[in-house]
Write a structure and sequence with these properties.
- By secondary structure, this protein is mainly β.
- The chain has a domain of 33 residues.
- Helices cover 0% and strands 24% of the residues.
- The protein is built from no helices and 4 strands.
- The protein has a two-stranded antiparallel ribbon. The protein has a two-stranded antiparallel ribbon with strand order 2-3.
- The two termini are 21 Å apart.
Length: 74
């Protein structure tokens, strides 16, 4: 495989904590699937949810830890 056939990408996104959590129109991203190789999330405020085993689960942030999601492509 030559270098011209290889590609990679990297992106960084920042989502500020919600001010009014009672306002559903102020919600962050809609439910979606990530198709990149992996997603790393560093968070210090609650709000992230994952859909697993046919139900939504809160991801509770822990100081100094992150969350690693492996993609649908694996």
């Amino acid at each position: 495989m030559s270098d011209s056939e290889l590609s990679s990408s990297f992106s960084i996104a920042y989502y500020p904590a919600k001010v009014n959590t009672n306002n559903k129109s102020n919600s962050g991203m809609k439910a979606h699937k990530d198709y990149d190789l992996m997603t790393v999330i560093l968070m210090d405020k609650p709000g992230l949810e994952v859909f697993w085993d046919d139900q939504w689960h809160d991801v509770n942030p822990q100081p100094g830890y992150g969350v690693l999601f492996l993609s649908e492509t694996l």
